[in-house]
Amino acid sequence: MQYTSTRGAATRVDFRTVVLSGLAEDGGLYVPVSLPQFSANEIANWSWLPFDELAWRVISPFVGDSIDEASLRSLVSDSYSRFRHRAIAPLQQIGHNEWVLQLFHGPTRASKDFAAQLQMRLVQHFLGENGDRAMLVGASNGDTAVAAIEALDACPGARLLALYPRTGTPGDRMAILQAADSGRVCALAVDGSFDDCQSLVSRLFRQWPLPDVVPISFNSTNWVGVLAQIVFYFHAALQLGGGLRPVGFSVPAASFAEIYAGFIAQKMGLPINQIIVSTNRNDALHQFIHSNRYNTGSSSHTLSPAMDFSLFSNLERFVWELYERNGPATRALMEHFEYCGELSIGNRQWLQARMLFDSYAVGDAQTREEIATLFRETGCAVDPHTATGAFAGRLHRRNIGAPMVTLGQIAPEKSAALLAELGAWHGEVPASAALGAPARVLGRDDLQGLGEILAQLQAGR
Ligand SMILES: *Cc1c(COP(=O)(O)O)cnc(C)c1O
After folding, report:
1. Tens digit of pLDDT for each residue in 291-308?
2. Residue nearest (by alpha carbon) to ligand 1 atom 9
3. What is the pLDDT of residue 171?
4. Residue 301: CB partners within 8 Å, gap ≥ 6?
5. Structural domain 73-108+224-421, CATH architecture
6. Which residues are in the Tryptophan synthase beta chain-like PALP domain (predicted)?
């Protein structure tokens, strides 16, 4: 499989280059030049496959001949070896034809484990003994960085630099990040928002200062982050009717990557009749889907912190698809967006998106209510992110006959204190982590300071 850039100017590259990358050379994101297509019958034939085997079928066409079959099979299968549920991603029923796909049985109890575990193994496969040339870099509100650090064992030479917002990152995640600071890992608090962290990382990738070090994005700016999530949709649909029956999804917008992965799964032939994007009151994506007006702006803290931002890098891949893979058109839109923080796509492209997508912004009060009601009526404890999805899914489903699956991306015990307050938790509530002040705090525009920290990390100081 060959890849190109959403901004059109980069030459074509193979899967290896994509794995070992941050941004494409022209500042765009890597995308596959074509998508594998499967017929409904082909997909239905996979209904008996265990999760890892299904994952290999979905992933392998994107890898092409960059990795031989036996190595890829074992690498993919190994990615799920640390999950604590036999089904890897079990479905839990929460209502009539309503389900939660539990994506939180990995080592850090969040869906980001799927991408992180796969990515580190791919990096190790490609770099081997030169693993010490890899520098994984990314912005995170907590979950992605924690998952990446946990997966770093699979790539023993690599180093990792994570930027997180000084306020807004949940305390338990922040404690893990502070404790992870070591010769190989630098977790850096930024005096700003998630969006500020994300912008710093993008600028760093565009002006990468270390010529001998390979910069790799550890979130789904890197295609692997998307690829790992396409599997979710195939798995859920196959469990609920063998791929012949349309299924709807409701996706809490913790980034646009998981939403875009669903869009890609549908383009590959999976019968998905609807994708609902749920946000909290930071509703940039809801405004985009609902009114074709996407604005970045300040985001406020809510009960669902993984959704408290407005810069969604995978939107660029989505725009590129909607514009029939037109690089120059995508570049013009994204440069305009970077310049003024606003994006509206053509009416034709927007209507095409609306064929599949609906959206809804769920406030904190509704989120609390949903957590309490679900627990009272079903005994299921869900975390606040999942609750926004379950609520939006029930409200906006188009077809009562099609199963509605909410992606459950974070384990409920991570919000045990809140759930206990709402009467939706009978287990233990862990004491909140003791937090010291971060050792250093980077200014939100301090690209030079970031470069110095990066050089120290590489030198092992
Ligand atoms: C996962 C992801 C996020 C959210 O990161 P968290 O650490 O879960 O807050 C944001 N952007 C991208 C591209 C991601 O893949």
Report:
1. 999 998 788 899 998 898
2. 141
3. 87
4. 167, 168, 308
5. 3-Layer(aba) Sandwich (3.40)
6. 92-343
